[in-house]
Amino acid sequence: MVTWNSFDVTARAGTLIPASPGDFDADGDVDGSDYLKWRRDIGSTFNVAADDNYDGIVDAADYVIWRKHYSEASGSLTAVIATVPEPTTLTLIFLAVTCWSHRRDRKDRAEAV
Fold first, then answer.
1. How far apart are CA 23 and CA 51, in angstroms?
2. pLDDT for 14-23, tens place per residue?
3. N or C: which end of the chain has fewer CB within 10 A?
């Protein structure tokens, strides 16, 4: 097994095949460009980068694998953003009231001088 750009790949018939199922173009995600790669290579026994079930031909079974893993992200920014919790409404209200009261307090002190 060869490691390249943090993807584990195997060499088969002179083509690098990503270890991620459905990622036919080895860009780290399973998306529309992988579908286009499968679509261009369907029926091929020579260009087997889209042969995810390793039966020697790019066919509908490979499409099923792509469809099952469609829009999975491995290490993409989208996956990281999705795990960041958003502040609740009460927290935002609390921060707004705190800022407003500090601003008003500073204004009152400035007028007293």
1. 10
2. 555 556 888 8
3. C
